[in-house]
Prior knowledge:
By secondary structure, this protein is α+β, with helices and mostly antiparallel strands. The protein has four helices and four strands; from the N terminus they run ββββαααα. Helix content is 51%, strand content 18%. A hairpin with a 5-residue loop joins β2 (15-17) and β3. The two termini are 29 Å apart.
Amino acid sequence: MEECLASVKLHLQPAVCGQGGTCLMSSATMDVSIDQLRGLPLERRLEIIEALWESVEADAGPFPIPDEFADELDRRYAEHVANPESSIPWEQVRAEIHRQLH
């Protein structure tokens, strides 16, 4: 990413907690440099990415799926229907990924 993207506007919503643990969200806008964003903890950067992606989806609407992707999805679904026991449950896939990463 080029540094010509010197700053971006972030809409921050810090929690403001009152008595009894009630938290309200307040809004603030500030300029943040790309370098400052890079310096944030990974979890916060992922939250920002998710918020940005949601705003792109909201503005752009559904993305068209290229024909070759749709064909591959159809092929995989047909393969699953023909042989459902060959599928691996998501929980097992997730556990294997987690094991490999840690």
